[in-house]
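We emphasize that the prediction below concerns an isolated chain of 132 residues; any contacts that depend on oligomerization or on bound cofactors are therefore not represented. The input was used exactly as deposited, without trimming of termini.
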Amino acid sequence: MARRVGLMGADDIEAAMIDAITEHMRDLKDKYKAAKKEEDTEKGLATFFDKTMPDFMEKLEKVLGEEVGCAVGTKISLADVYLSMLITEFFDNKEGAAASITNCPKISASVAAVATHPSIVAWIATRPQTAI
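Result of the prediction step, given as a token string:
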């Protein structure tokens, strides 16, 4: 679907990079789920938001493209939308998620670009409310 709506990059190389970024984020989500299942959940989650997530984000920061506000290529892609959703909506600890990208200017710019993209802003304003 992302390819159909123009969110999979300009070519196969960009599409592969977008896939790699989304897989990196899936790995991060798996670590979050594991932290929530630890015997000492509070400590596991604290470690996740203080160490694990920032480390993952800083690794990701190093491989993002140079275009400000775009994780890959020269326009918003699925990678940007996924990053934005992950940072702003997925985690229960919104402050911890936001803090994890403090040292990541490219990721921060990507999240901001998605939050202000006219089509995305319009969709969020009119989307139907659904059960999660």
